[in-house]
Amino acid sequence: MATPVRTPFELTGADGAPLRGDVRAAGTGMSRPAVIICHGFKGFKDWGFFPHLADRLARAGLTAVSFNFSGSGVGPDGETFSEPDRFGHATFGNDLKDLALIVERLRQRALVPDLAPPTALGVFGHSRGGGVAVLHAAADRGVRAVVTWSAVGAPLRWGPETIAQWRRDGKIEITNQRTGDVLPLYTDVLDEIERDADGRLDIAAAAGRLLIPWLIVHGEVDETVSVREAQMLHRRAADRAELLVVGHGSHTFGAKHPWAGMTPELEHAMDATVAWFARTLF
């Protein structure tokens, strides 16, 4: 397979500001399956393993689309959390709008020049991005396959004491352990979750509606999202999903940023992911 070419793009995100991403493919003129990659909370498209996964998918003959959610907080340089207020106002609803926009532009041949519409579409998501991927795939009949790593099983990730303090102060502070950046998180996402009377953000319910091949990958010793959430999602999906618990796997399967090399756990997850999309999308 030819060396993948990386082509950047910029759209207007759900918050009205730039939505930045790139496409990796071994050429743009020929139609091929595509996979859209969704990062998680405090993540970004060029964090750790994401570029390596995108390259692996592209070398397998797929088009790999990576992007920063409009609420990632990461600015034009692709590495620095220079847009803290965008992070602060991020919501699941905006994430879903960003993903839907990418899907629409990809199908309309309007994402990057000369990129043919995909012959089939898959979605990948890590952590919070895994929850977003499940929500989108359950609503979009054009998605043919899903892979999630370390996916959250519910949108509400905070306990009563944190929520009470959040309400009092109008924000909480989120520390990025890698960079030391302290980012504000306003009540937008909390308001959205508490107003979700129709279950639009109910990830577990969406898992039960998902009728396409779904590979659920989770680390055995995930320190951020318990493997019990993967087991719950697997039960909800019944026989339509396959659960792969990676022995000794952490939340990122040992990956770090800046990139420090492959680990056996990450290699296992990546091999299974590429094989899953190759089998279900071609």
Give your account of this protein's structure.
Helices cover 34% and strands 22% of the residues. It is α/β, with parallel strands linked by helices and 282 residues long. The chain has a single domain (5-155, 200-281), classed as Rossmann fold. The strands form 2 sheets. The chain has an 8-stranded mixed beta sheet, with helices on both faces. A two-stranded antiparallel ribbon has the order 7-8. A hairpin with a 6-residue loop joins strand 7 and strand 8. Helix 3 crosses helix 4 and helix 4 (128-139) crosses helix 7.
Brief overview:
The protein has 282 residues and is α/β, with parallel strands linked by helices. The chain has helices spanning 50-59, 84-88, 92-107, 128-139, 160-169, 188-194, 203-209, 227-237, 264-281, and strands spanning 5-12, 18-25, 34-38, 63-67, 121-126, 143-149, 171-175, 182-186, 214-219, 241-246. A hairpin with a 5-residue loop joins strand 1 (5-12) and strand 2.
CATH topology: Rossmann fold
Order of helices and strands: EEEHEHHEHEHEEHHEHEH
- Outline type: globular
Rg (CA only) = 18 Å
Which descriptors would you attach to this protein?
282 residues; alpha/beta; Rossmann fold; two-stranded antiparallel sheet; 9 helices
